């Protein structure tokens, strides 16, 4: 059994700890680091997992999951470089940070797996894409994959595709929340109470997502099945097309990819 330490138990780090415990990992095999003692005590009370400092985490854990904000990475790398044990696997959840950054700043030969998760991790429904760095062997990727499978689905992608992944599934939940928000507004415009409109749309989103995941059908086939000739749905679809919603989504995701590339450049040197 491996010991895993989450460095930075914020939103994503806490979600991972919680998911690992729910999947049956013992609290004794898990550790975390946090900056503030109050937050650390609160997490220990909630999960029974020990909060430690970075040198202790590096001394005890076989897997170090880096879950600090990208802008907090530099001091953490300085701290880690001094205490990292050979063979420790680094799993980075930090958006936009290349594996090469860890390889350059940490002792030679460090295995690094880069992950782009998303916030549905808090309900065990994350979509995580993983890429191995120069020294990540198949067993390192398998270890990272098994860990993330406890909190959702995992795919492997070449690291060059991580900017596209960030734009699609990393930011993806925000696009769905945006659509749901707009549809609830439409319900209010049509005279429904907000709570009723929210129930109708959220359950429709959950049901549609389950059909997309479980039916094996293409989204076009599922949409056609609710689009009858001269019916209500086709009237709505015509308006969506007139307003360029498809083109807007494609352009939005392209803009997110471009921003991800730009943010990544800050860490090239
Ligand atoms: N949220 C998302 O949608 C999402 C999606 C994909 C990837 N990610 C990635 O996940 C990472 C974490 O994001 P988040 O939203 O969970 O951020 P967050 O809530 O701010 O969590 C980061 C945590 O790390 C702590 N921290 C910072 N430096 C530390 C250090 N040196 N030692 C120990 N703890 C330290 C922070 O403490 P303080 O509160 O004191 O700063 C905070 O509790 C980011 O790199 C982000 O790119 C997030």
TrEMBL record:
Lineage: Bacteria, Bacillati, Actinomycetota, Actinomycetes, Pseudonocardiales
GO annotation, biological process: L-proline biosynthetic process
Oxidoreductase among keywords: yes
Record-linked InterPro entries: 6-PGluconate_DH-like_C_sf, NAD(P)-bd_dom_sf, P5C_Rdtase_cat_N, P5CR-like_CS, P5CR_dimer, Pyrroline-COOH_reductase
Domain Pyrroline-5-carboxylate reductase catalytic N-terminal: 5-96
GO cellular component annotations of the record: cytoplasm
Binding-site residues for NADP(+), renumbered to this chain: 67-70
Family: Belongs to the pyrroline-5-carboxylate reductase family.
Segments forming domain Pyrroline-5-carboxylate reductase dimerisation: 159-263
Name assigned to this protein: Pyrroline-5-carboxylate reductase
EC id: 1.5.1.2
Organism: Crossiella cryophila
PROSITE patterns reported in the protein's UniProt record: P5CR
UniProt catalytic activity: L-proline + NADP(+) = (S)-1-pyrroline-5-carboxylate + NADPH + 2 H(+); L-proline + NAD(+) = (S)-1-pyrroline-5-carboxylate + NADH + 2 H(+)
Pathway: Amino-acid biosynthesis; L-proline biosynthesis; L-proline from L-glutamate 5-semialdehyde: step 1/1
NCBIfam families attached to this UniProt entry: proC
SUPFAM superfamilies: 6-phosphogluconate dehydrogenase C-terminal domain-like, NAD(P)-binding Rossmann-fold domains
Gene responsible for this protein: proC
Location relative to the cell: Cytoplasm
Functional description taken from the UniProt entry: Catalyzes the reduction of 1-pyrroline-5-carboxylate (PCA) to L-proline.
Major subcellular location class: cytoplasm
């Amino acid at each position: 059994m491996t010991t895993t330490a989450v460095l930075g138990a914020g939103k994503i780090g806490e979600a991972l700890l919680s998911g690992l415990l729910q999947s049956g990992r013992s609290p004794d095999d898990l550790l975390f680091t946090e900056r503030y003692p109050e937050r650390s005590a609160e997490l220990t009370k909630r999960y029974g997992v020990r909060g430690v400092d970075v040198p202790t985490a590096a001394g005890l854990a076989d897997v170090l999951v880096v879950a600090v904000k990208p802008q907090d990475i530099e001091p953490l790398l300085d701290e880690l470089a001094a205490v990292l044990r050979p063979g420790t696997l680094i799993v980075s959840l930090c958006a936009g940070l290349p594996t090469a950054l860890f390889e350059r700043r940490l002792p030679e030969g460090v295995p690094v797996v880069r992950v782009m998760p998303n916030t549905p991790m808090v309900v065990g429904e994350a979509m995580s894409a993983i890429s191995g760095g120069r020294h990540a062997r198949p067993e390192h990727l398998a270890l990272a994959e098994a860990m993330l499978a406890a909190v959702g689905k995992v795919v492997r992608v070449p690291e060059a595709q991580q900017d596209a992944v960030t734009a699609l599934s990393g930011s993806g939940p925000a696009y769905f929340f945006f659509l749901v928000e707009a549809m609830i507004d439409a319900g209010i415009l049509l005279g429904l109470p907000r709570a009723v409109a929210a129930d109708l749309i959220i359950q429709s989103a959950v049901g549609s997502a389950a059909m997309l995941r479980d039916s094996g059908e293409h989204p076009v086939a599922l949409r056609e099945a609710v689009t009858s000739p001269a019916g209500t749905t086709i009237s709505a679809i015509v308006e969506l097309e007139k307003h360029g919603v498809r083109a807007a989504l494609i352009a939005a995701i392209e803009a997110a990819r471009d921003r991800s590339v730009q943010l990544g450049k800050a860490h090239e040197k």
